[in-house]
Amino acid sequence: MLPIDRRILLAALSAATLVRPAAAVARTNRVDVHHHYFPPAMLEAQIAARAERIIPGVREWTPARTLAAMDAGGVGTAFVSTSSSAEVRKSLDKEGLRRLARACNEFAAQMATDHHGRFGFFTFLPLPDIDGSLDELQYALDVLKADGIGMMTSYDDKWLGDDRFTPLLDELNRRKATVFVHPLAPACCGNLIPGVANSILEYPYDTGRAVLSLLFNGRFVQYRNIAWIFCHAGGPIPMLAGRVVTQTKANKDLARVAPHGIDEELKRLHYETANSVYAPTMAALMKYVPVSQILLGSDYPYVAVEDNVERLQKIGLDFAQLNAIERDNAKKLFPRLNARF
Fold it and tell me: Which CATH architecture has domain 28-339?
């Protein structure tokens, strides 16, 4: 037998340790920040508002099913949020929407208690009702111990940078809250192209509208204490950031809304990966923002948790990048995770 050079052997062993294959990444401690839940009150409201469009994964949702999906994808903790459609909001009066928000938030809090360590949750607010939302925010954060606040990109064709939302943003900033912003098609711009679903085009576009609404109304600077999470790799933001920069050089208000430049403001935001783990999409996002700003999301039950995770393993990320996206970045945002991992 030929003698083995000890230096070559040690180098090979070191390489095997440092450059592990993607499949070897721990399968039990991922954190999914875009994971929907459907308590009975929400499901009833959705069926009443648009029964013909309820997919089986929504209609048949249970905590047991969602835990099974998490286990299949190696997700240890999911931060759940509602997917509250404009149809649901329009079908309820102010008091009805407040009752729905309370029922959803209490259900989520009970899930977190019943399945310790497996769930966190973003508070569902009865927006555009500002007073009701301020009351629910206080109850959810102080009593139910929610991990953050869930908001939609727009309400009644008003995006989040609009003045009507400043009382709510004032309170979120005071509390140093984490805000998860989920897109829907705005009332102005849904079903524009026959055969092209809103979820394909208008949802991600509305993320772009919400981000630019907050940016050019100066909210990112005004509310520095809010940690923002935007869905689906930021929608058009990574692709259009350069265009935004060049088209606004003459903007006289730029020093107020982006004192260190537009790129600096957009790179401070957090972006999650749900339904966006496609090599060109991720390349654009990771070329634009630091890996520290990217979080794992699945969009379950609309997209399988396992599918999202498997795609992420196949796009050429190294072990450190995977760990950051799948777990470590979330630990910086959510104290709940420090007791688990």
Answer: Alpha-Beta Barrel (3.20)
- The Cα 128–Cα 293 span in angstroms is 28
Q: Distance between alpha carbon 241 and the CA centroid of its chain, in Å? A: 20
Domain ranges of the chain: 28-339
Backbone angles phi, psi at 124, to 5 degrees: -85, 125
Whether 33 shows a pLDDT value over 80: the answer reads yes
Q: Which residue has the higher pLDDT, 12 or 333?
A: 333
Asked if residues 247 and 204 have their Cβ atoms less than 8 Å apart, the reply is no
Q: What is the DSSP string of 134-164?
A: HHHHHHHHHTS--SEEEEESEETTEETTSGG
pTM: 0.90
**CA dihedral in degrees (252, 256, 261, 263; nearest 10)?**
-110
Average pLDDT estimate for 267-292 = 96
- Asked if residue 309 lies in contact with residue 73, where contact means CB atoms within 8 angstroms, the answer is yes
Quickly count: other Cβ atoms within 10 Å of residue 264's Cβ. 11
